[in-house]
Design a protein that fits this description.
The chain is an alpha+beta fold. The protein folds into 2 domains: 48 residues, no CATH class; 153 residues, Yope Regulator, Chain: A (2-Layer Sandwich), CATH 3.30.1460. The protein contains 9 helices and 6 strands; from the N terminus they run H-H-H-E-H-E-E-E-H-H-E-H-E-H-H. Strand 2 and strand 3 form a beta hairpin. Helix 3 packs across helix 9.
């Protein structure tokens, strides 16, 4: 196989993964040729992937403000669904920028959600930057994490996106999380509405299963 075909196949596989993870949105109009639309979308995605980038990384304070706005909007969405969340924003209280923010939904302080950014050093997402939503269940392997894994396919079907686990060597230390990854373009484009909706969907879809498991 030529280098061109190998590179093309790699790009196609990456595109399909992002499409499945809802990092690439397909809008089909009435009577639209779905194959043509997806091919055109792939071409546009490929242009953005191969074009040289000159943008500077978002400053910590700007990212912190982005997270605050996402949380504010997600809180309103979830409240309309009958779910109350709370979070502590040090940036708003004492002016400290944060790269992660924790979201409390239950009385149990050891099971919570959080939002931040990640750039995995290992695994299938190695070297790429993501906005990430975590459901943290450290120390609750048998009571919560394993039973929730049995519902993972159903949760993913409801979300329309794949959920990631920690690497085996990380889980071996007692850290059990399920993650929803979004392309970091969401942050660069300051798409607060999309990020807030995805966060609200993540919390709203997983919380009922945790309720059933007796997490209070």
């Amino acid at each position: 196989m030529s280098n061109f075909l190998r590179q093309y196949a790699a790009y196609k596989e990456e595109f399909l993964k992002e499409l499945k993870s809802v990092n690439v949105t397909v809008n089909l109009k009435n009577n639209a040729d779905s194959k043509k639309v997806v091919l055109e979308l792939f071409e546009e995605w490929l242009k953005g992937k191969t074009a040289p980038r000159k943008s500077q990384p978002m400053a910590n304070d700007s990212f912190d403000s982005f997270l605050d706005e996402v949380l504010f909007r997600a809180k309103k969405i979830l409240l309309a669904r009958g779910i109350r969340i709370s979070y502590l924003s040090l940036s708003q209280q004492i002016g400290i920028a944060e790269s992660w923010k924790c979201i409390k939904v239950f009385g149990n302080d050891t099971i919570f959600y959080r939002i931040g950014k990640t750039k995995p050093r290992k695994g299938p997402h190695k070297g790429r930057e993501y906005l990430v939503f975590d459901l943290v269940m450290d120390g609750h392997k048998k009571q919560v994490f394993v039973p929730l894994l049995q519902k993972k396919d159903r949760i993913e079907s409801s979300l329309g996106a794949s959920l990631e686990r920690e690497l085996p060597q990380v889980e071996a230390t007692g850290k059990y999380r399920l993650k929803l990854l979004l392309s970091y373009e969401v942050v660069r484009e300051k798409n607060i509405r999309l990020a807030a909706r995805k966060l609200a969907d993540f919390v709203g879809t997983t919380k009922p299963y945790l309720d059933d498991l007796g997490v209070l």
